[in-house]
Every structure is written in structure tokens, then in C-alpha cells.
Amino acid sequence: MAEPKTKYDRQLRIWGEQGQTALEKASICLLNCGPTGSETLKNLVLGGVGSITVIDGSKVELGDLGNNFMVDESCVGQSKAKCVCTFLQELNDAVKAKFIEEYPEALVDSNPSFFSQFTLVVATQLAEDSMMKLDKICREANVLLIFARSYGLTGFVRNSVKEHAVIESKPDHFLDDLRLNNPWSELKRFAESIDLKVPDPVAHKHTPYVVILVKMAEEWAKAHGGALPSTRDEKKEFKELLKAGMVAMDEDNYKEAIEASFKVFAPRGISSDLQQIIHDSCSEVDSNSSDFWVMVAALKEFIVNEGGGEAPLEGFNTRYDIFN
Q: Which ranges carry the THIF-type NAD/FAD binding fold domain (predicted)?
């Protein structure tokens, strides 16, 4: 058996070890293993989901051979749940798989507490009244629920969940945050120790662009009542001030400062979206709170106490990124 890091190498690069761990701990329940449900479960099994439970009370018919790749001629007349479960188990022997020969509608009515054991329930081809009952059951048990129904080449998918928090740890457009519009005390003290008008041309050329921006932003704020450039004309004027500080055309540090000047223009404090999250009633956590809201509560406490109204800086090597 291949090691998990080798076996799931490609997907690990997408969602990382934390995402893969969550997948491997997940327990999935499939209601009705027709073509839609079987294909859905196949993709989860190949990805390394922890366990699956297939529930279907029907038998394999000849018509199933034309639309479900998980059954063949030898399966005709046999339990569809058993045949599909057996096929899926062969795709990934690391996945725990079991089946129940029962019609999902009957199980929803007779044993609603059965569904509380799962991480996710995927319900396919259910009638509307059964969908409504199952939705209520899963919401009360705080279980993720996905409805899917196909009609030939058309269909629908509906997600039903009380709350689903997503933390984007690998954003598409990463912007390093040096908080140049409101520098932290150590950076401010370092900038104050450097003279931008140093007569030595070599020293002038090697002044870090971050220091240039911090000092020029402070100079601008003093002249404009504490405000930073906000309008188009003010931003243009600020760039001209940076350009005027150059003593030679080959000073790349000043060119970098001009290119990165937009980081000074960002408004101070936290965004309205973040304010909405930290002021949500769920940020008052207790022993039943999810990991997401525990992290929100910690962030809120940092902003109020240590952050001085600002969120924490990105976790990078500040000394290396600024001064090398």
C-alpha cells in the first residue's frame, strides 16, 4: 500500500495536509446509488475519504447497465447498494465501506437519529417530502447535507448546512502586509534611525524602500492633518514626492518605493467584512463553539488589546523581506 503522501500527492498540493486530514476523517452517507450518487461517491473514495455508507433498497436492473459504471451484467438482480459498495471499495482499499439494503425514504421516517453519525449526507433522487424531513434532521444534528437530482442532461444540486466557515489559507493573490499605512512600533523606530538625506550616495541608494515609504508617509500625514493620500491627485502627488527624493536615476530602492506606494494608500484599521465577523454573536465562544469561531474570538481579542485596532501581520520573516 502506498504511503498517503505519495498516494494523494497531487491533491495535497491543492488543499494541503490539513485538508487531506479532514477528508480522511470524514464519514459519508449516500442515499440512492444511481449514476449521480455513485459518481459523486467515486470521486470522494479516490480522494481518500475516511468511510462511506451506501443506502439503497433497489436491485440492479438491465437499464442500470447503460448509465452506472459501478455495475455490470453479473450484478443484475442483486442488491444495488452491495454491488456499488463493492466496486467503490476496490478503487481504494484504505476507505472503510459498508452498505444497507433499505429504501432511504423508509430510513428517514423510521430512524432519523441514524444520520447524526455522519460528516456529510449526499441524498440523490429523493422526493420533496423526504428531502424536507431529511433537511430538518441533518440541521438539528449539525450534519452537512447535499441534495442532488438528475434528469438526463439536466439536474440540480442544493447544499443545506447551518453554517460553513471557509478559511482561505492559500489566496490566489497574496499581498505582503507590512502595514506601511500604520507601521508597528519597532519598524517606526528603525525608520526614525535612518536619514533619507544622507550625503553618502551609496548609503542613499541602499536605504530600504520600506523605510522610504514609512518616512514619506509620516511626512505627508503631518502636512495633511494625519490623513494619508486618498484621492487620485493626492496619490499622484505622493509618488512625485518619492521621485523627487532620488539623487540618481539608478536608485532601484526609490523605484521600488514608487511601485509599492499603493500599500500606503490602504485605509487604516480592519475591513468592514472583518468587522462584521468579529462582531457576530458567535464570536462569544463557549465549549460548543467550532474551531473557526474560537479563532475569530482570539483575533477579536488581539485587535482590541495588542493590535491597537489592527489585525496581526502576515506570518513571514519580516527582517529578511525588508532588509535583504
A: 8-161
Element (H, E) at 42: helix 35-47
Q: For residue 58, which of 89, 100, 28, 90 has the smallest C-alpha distance?
A: 100
Three-state SS string over 202-219 comes to HHHHCCCHHHHHHHHHHH
Q: Is 80 helix (H, G, I), strand (E, B) or coil?
A: helix
Q: Which three cell numbers stand for residue 8?
A: 494523494
According to DSSP, the β-strands at 154-160 and 144-151 are antiparallel
Amino acid at position 220, single letter: W
Q: What contacts 270, CB < 8 A, 6 or more positions away?
A: 278, 303, 309, 310, 311
Cell numbers linked to 163: 453554517
Closest CA to 311 of 286, 261, 277: 277
- Segment 27-75, tens digit of pLDDT: 999 999 999 999 999 999 999 999 999 999 999 999 989 888 899 999 9
Give percent of the chain above pLDDT 90. Answer: 60
